[in-house]
Input
Amino acid sequence: MSLLKNHLFNGVLYALVSIGTIIGEVRGIHGLVYVCKPLMMIVLSSWFYFNSRRVGDRFTLLIQVGLFFSLIGDVALMFQHRDEFNFIIGLGAFLIAQLCYTLAFAQNVSEVPGGQGLLVSAVLGGSIIAYGAAFGSILLSGIDETLVVPVGIYTVAITLMGVGAALRFGRTYMPSFVMVFVGALLFIASDSILATSRFVRPVDHASWSVILTYAIAQYLIARGCLRHVLDPEEIRRRAALTT
Output
């Protein structure tokens, strides 16, 4: 197997650059962050692309675009200490990434008819909506009015991503659902820590916990989506649909 597709090699490489990013953030080594942080999404996106390109459907394309805009967001946030406007750019890039993930999950749900797991999906999705509403109201009440609209829109977008991940229950293979759903929860957790530390009150562990939860979240989402499209049963189903 090519190194570009090898799960172990790319997983280890992704872990190393993620650790490098955390060390750089904690110790204030900007040069290390500038090298390692962009490599996180470059490694993950490359690995996802070379493993999913033979599928080449709308689902995998949306995930790939989401990873690309996550890279743009990472780069923009690296330079927010130089210009606050970079924070808005990063927020916009991650907003697009969240929407791409949400559309991909919706694509998955629409492809599987029936109401399998609807009750579980409703409970999980409702819990995420409740959290998003509660956290959003606290967050928006304490930020500058110029940021209310973009932060509010982003809060809605990431909540919808979590709901989309929840709706996949019963409509994909359980390992894929668990990976993507846990990844979505960690993505929400990462953004919640970041927003709390930036707008509400300082969070001592934010320098490392934001990146740690984000790194695990992105890996689980990408890995779970690969499990969905590369599962032998899914491959056979696609073949049957095209014959």
Q: What stands out?
A: Residues 7-242 form one domain. The first helix runs from residue 7 to 27. The chain has nine helices and no strands. The radius of gyration is 18 Å.
